[in-house]
């Protein structure tokens, strides 16, 4: 893995690496995502942005396809 040392000026541009970041090129194309490692990250940072009731509602009305069907279709496209 490549390791990059970030100087203070760059760190300031990256908002102190206190939140997830998207890295884009000059044309705005997404290069990748960066999620900072943080020892003081709280568990509530990992909570979904929707309520438990909404999660239940979506689960009740889910109309997906079995994984076996998706994999079979994917194999046919190879």
Order of strands in the sheet with most strands: 1-2
Number of strands: 2
Major β-sheet annotation = 2 strands, antiparallel
Give the structural class.
alpha+beta
Subunit organisation of the chains: single chain
Total number of distinct structural domains: 1
Tell me the span between the first and last alpha carbons.
31 Å
Helix content: 25-40%
Shape, please? flat
String of helices and strands: HEEHH
Low-confidence sequence ranges: none
Mean pLDDT figure: 84
Number of helices: 3
Radius of gyration: 20 Å
As a percent range, the share of strand residues is 5-15%
Structural account:
- The protein has 78 residues and is α+β, with helices and mostly antiparallel strands.
- The protein has one domain.
- Helices cover 33% and strands 12% of the residues.
- It has three helices and two strands, in the order αββαα.
- The chain has a two-stranded antiparallel sheet.
- The radius of gyration is 20 Å and the shape is flat.
Task: Describe what is shown at a glance.
The chain has one domain.
Structure keywords:
78 residues
What are the SSEs and their pairings?
Elements: H1 8-13, E1 21-24, E2 30-34, H2 52-60, H3 67-77
């Amino acid at each position: 893995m490549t390791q990059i040392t970030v100087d203070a000026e760059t760190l300031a541009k990256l908002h102190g690496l206190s939140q997830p970041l998207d890295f884009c090129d000059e044309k705005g194309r997404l290069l990748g995502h960066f999620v900072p490692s943080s020892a003081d990250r709280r568990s509530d940072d990992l909570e979904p942005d929707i309520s438990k009731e909404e999660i239940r509602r979506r689960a009740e009305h889910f109309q997906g396809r079995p994984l076996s069907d998706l994999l079979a279709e994917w194999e046919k496209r190879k």
